[in-house]
Write a structure and sequence with these properties.
The chain has helices spanning 2-32, 37-79, 88-120, 124-155. It contains four helices and no strands. Helix content is 89%, strand content 0%. The protein is mainly alpha-helical. It has one domain (2-155). Bound molecules: protoporphyrin IX containing FE (HEM). Residues 7, 10-11, 14, 18, 62-63, 66-67, 69-70, 90, 93-94, 97-98, 100, 145, 148-149, 152-153, 156 line the site of protoporphyrin IX containing FE. Protoporphyrin IX containing FE (HEM) is lined by residues 7, 10-11, 14, 18, 62-63, 66-67, 69-70, 90, 93-94, 97-98, 100, 145, 148-149, 152-153, 156.
């Protein structure tokens, strides 16, 4: 039951992270492109600020629940007198998950800071450039995320 609850939390946090990226990338941005930069850049800034705060919480949940599940299985395996070898899909998920988190760190703490400064200075060209970089890296993270889900579920 505890294991199933951890897995549920893990997957719900992933739904928020991946689902939010899909929404921002494919729905919000194309609609916002109809606006002029002085309206568009602050709108995207406000939406991304809220989304990135939620992603920070999602990352803590994904990491904590993921490591906890690995720890539980490893402990039970060793207690049964067997040696624990991480399944291939878990290893790939963990490694690529860390890559996604590092990319998010770059998005949130370098690129979004640039957007923040541009909005404060009402420098719309700089804001649009920061948004374009954020879009590229969100696209990369979305592709890695979908790859992880596909690999994990197809391997199961
Ligand atoms: C460092 C980060 C991560 C760790 C340590 C981790 C670890 C785990 C573990 C141990 C499980 C349980 C698997 C099972 O019981 O079969 C799991 C399930 C799952 N994880 Fe992760 N994970 C991480 C990141 C991610 C990411 C970034 C994604 C997606 C983008 C993801 C998607 C999933 C999915 C969809 C499941 C359910 C798989 C199933 O029930 O077959 N995980 N994860």
């Amino acid at each position: 039951m505890l294991y199933a609850s951890l897995k549920l939390l893990h997957v719900l946090a992933i739904v928020v992270w991946i689902g939010g990226m899909v929404f921002a990338h494919f729905f919000l941005r194309p609609a916002a492109m109809q606006l002029q930069p002085p309206q568009r850049v602050p709108l995207m800034h406000g939406a991304l600020q809220r989304f990135f705060s939620a992603v920070l919480v999602a990352i803590v949940i994904v990491l904590a629940s993921g490591l906890w599940m690995i720890g539980r299985v490893a402990k039970e395996t060793v207690q049964a007198g067997l040696s624990f070898n991480m399944p291939l899909d878990w290893s790939i998920m963990s490694a690529l998950g860390i890559v996604m988190m590092a990319i998010f760190g770059h998005i949130r703490f370098a690129l979004f800071k640039r957007l923040d400064r541009a909005v404060a200075a009402q420098d719309w060209p700089a804001g649009a450039a920061a948004l374009a970089s954020i879009r590229t890296w969100v696209g990369v993270n979305l592709a890695i995320g979908v790859l992880i889900i596909a690999f994990t579920l197809l391997m199961a």
